[in-house]
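so my prof wants the structure for this chain in the tokens format not the other one, which i didnt know existed until like an hour ago. anyway here's the sequence
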Amino acid sequence: MKKILFPTDFSETANNAFIYALNLAENQNAELYVLHAFQYPMISGGVDAVILQDVYDTIELNNFENLKESIPGLRKLAEDNGFTNVDLKFVVKEGMLTYVLPKIIEEEKIDFVVMGTTGNTGFEKVIFGSNTMNAIRDLKIPILSIPHNYKYKGINNIGFTTVFQDKDRKALDYLTEIAYRYKAKVHCLHVSKDGNYDIPTLNHWKDYYKDEPVDFSIYTADESVDAVLEFIKEEKIDILTVVSSNKGFFEKLFSPSFTKKILSQNSIPLFVFHE
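here's what i got, hopefully its the right format
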């Protein structure tokens, strides 16, 4: 059975992403781990050790109580949306989210992560901040980020950006499995600046996936970000997938300019894979 990890700060943004995570868990017949991470405050010197420990104990207890109080609400959210059969597991961990995530992923053998991109504890920084690329690459498993206020509308068209390298195939095969489960289609996008691309490789990929719900498009554009936005609109993409090892392309997609454009023009979930 697959395992999906869902970090939450119990914000409205996180709850929206929770619905998406529940749907994926049901579709993939997966266990859904709900994680709440918290940090102890930095306290300057001169504080009695006993008092300091009491403060930390209180903070930890409050976070456990917070999760305990939130569990019925999350379970009701699942029930109200018809996900009564999803196996939910709740976890509280102390530490920065970027530190906690790799640990619990390793401990619980998590398959992929679903999380909201904004929230009271700075989830947006995990996805789009200065440490974004390192944090995502270090996870070594797929991570799906759900935009603020995004409402689940189903998955009919999955977008996949590719440079036609062998390492992209693992992600595309994974997406093809998801497409079959949702009766969806995977639309592959390759962006060329000058209109030149490897035609034999494209034809090889087309032949390899000819019996799968997969098609291929070549867009010519000076800026890959503009091509992606046009692709999303034309193909009615419900979820966009990138491979983080395609460094230049990946970094452009996660640049502040792209974030601003996609949030203002067509906010959709982003699925990040690793080679």
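also thought this was worth mentioning. The radius of gyration is 20 Å.
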